[in-house]
Amino acid sequence: CIPLIRFDMTFATYYAKKRGEGKPHRVAITHVAKKLIRVIYALERQDIDFNTQKLR
Question: How far apart are CA 46 and CA 38, in angstroms?
Fold first, then answer.
């Protein structure tokens, strides 16, 4: 997940938000990983391609 934080602004922003909430690094990384899993699951379920503009 660390490369994901470096190269994708959506996940980097989410990581920064969790760190800003006082979460330790490992906990924030776990939250990013869970978000990534939710995104992958939604993409598979809806049979759509990955598009960073559609991420929240």
Answer: 12
Q: Which two tokens stand for residue 35?
A: 């978000």
Question: The tokens of 16 are what?
Answer: 């920064």
Q: What is the DSSP letter of 21?
A: T
What pTM, to 2 d.p., does this model score?
Answer: 0.82
Residue found by looking up tokens 């990581």 in the block: 15
- Helical H runs in 1-56? 2-7, 9-20, 25-46
Residue spans of the domains in the chain: they are 2-49
Distance CA 29, CA 50 (A): 21
Q: What single-letter amino acid sits at 43?
A: L
Per-residue pLDDT, 51: 77
